[in-house]
Design the sequence.
């Protein structure tokens, strides 16, 4: 029994013990990838997607690149969070009055519950890449809300509860292309509409070359006794292009603009064929985590090579010890 995660018991999340002989603090699911090429008639690739527990089962909002090349969000359901039943058509967004309010493109969703409402955050087109925000109570009607931040911005990641009475949102200001820079910032809001008090959280680089070009928040942070546990992606550059890996950071529970510990080395980097080969080679990109507060089991969902959906595992106490003992100085 681990009491480190503050949250609900969720004994039915995917889990596999660390394979024999493996000493890594994060290890891959043996059944990876869980979603392969051309998974539904309308999508060539489903990756960088978000999942959540719902009524004893699981739901997901999936980044699906359609065969016209355009990224869109699809809704899916699952009993075990591994085998997904993804709807045939993209999510149809409406405004507060029920009038259709479509997105021109939408990618890299995050999904979370705050109080009794579910929120989707994604990379949206607002005359260029920006943060999109929408809500649902039943996963049938999806209501778009105002864009929280100005363009250009990506990797919007909200916190699952208010901190000091305010909603919190991480983001990564960028350009409208394949941004060659990027640090993580935090903003706060009284109502999820008006956002301000923007502050710097952490920058690219540090001691790890794997995060030397840019970084971006990954899944919704996990509340633990040690602070907010956040996986984030880090990008390095080579003569053949970018390489996306991921690490983790612990942020102060009452002031999440403050970094307490940050991994010096990556936790996962492209190694397996489904990570090194695909539409965009050498990408692992985490967008969701499921966790069981009783055992401290964490299942991390990541996109692989902008083609596949894959899962990795970690145990919270081991991971926090590792981050603390392999951290940069702050
Ligand atoms: C980023 C985003 C991600 C993608 C990554 C690697 O800029 O577009 O969706 O996984 O590049 O191509």
Sequence:
């Amino acid at each position: 029994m681990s009491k480190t995660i503050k949250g609900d018991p969720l004994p039915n999340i995917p889990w596999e013990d660390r394979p024999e002989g493996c000493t890594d603090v994060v290890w891959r699911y043996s059944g990876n990838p869980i979603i392969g090429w051309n998974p539904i008639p309308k999508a060539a690739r489903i990756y960088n997607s978000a999942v959540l527990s719902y009524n004893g089962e699981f739901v997901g909002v999936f980044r699906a690149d359609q065969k016209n090349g355009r990224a869109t969000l699809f809704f899916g359901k699952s009993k075990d969070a591994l085998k997904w039943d993804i709807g045939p058509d993209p999510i149809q967004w409406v405004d507060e009055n029920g009038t259709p309010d479509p997105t021109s493109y939408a990618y890299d969703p995050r999904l979370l519950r705050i109080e009794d409402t579910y929120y989707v955050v994604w990379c949206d087109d607002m005359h260029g890449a920006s943060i999109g925000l929408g809500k649902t109570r039943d996963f049938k009607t999806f209501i778009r809300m105002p864009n929280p931040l100005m363009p250009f911005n990506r990797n919007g990641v909200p916190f699952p509860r208010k901190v000091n009475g305010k909603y919190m949102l991480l983001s990564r200001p960028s350009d409208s292309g394949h941004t060659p820079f990027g640090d993580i910032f935090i903003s706060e809001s009284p109502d999820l509409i008006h956002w301000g008090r923007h502050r710097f959280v952490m920058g690219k680089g540090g001691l790890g070359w794997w995060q030397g070009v840019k970084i971006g928040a990954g899944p919704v942070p996990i509340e633990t006794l040690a602070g907010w546990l956040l996986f984030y992606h880090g990008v390095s550059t080579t003569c053949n292009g970018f390489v996306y890996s991921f690490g983790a950071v612990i942020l102060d529970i009452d002031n999440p603009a403050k970094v307490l510990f940050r991994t010096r080395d990556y936790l996962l980097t492209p190694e397996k064929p489904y990570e090194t080969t695909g539409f965009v080679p050498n990408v692992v990109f985490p967008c969701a985590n499921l966790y069981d507060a009783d055992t401290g089991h964490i299942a991390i969902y990541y996109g692989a090579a902008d083609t596949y959906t894959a899962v990795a595992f970690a145990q919270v106490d081991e991971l926090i010890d590792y981050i603390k003992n392999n951290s940069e100085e702050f």
Notes: The CA atoms of residues 84 and 315 lie 24 Å apart.
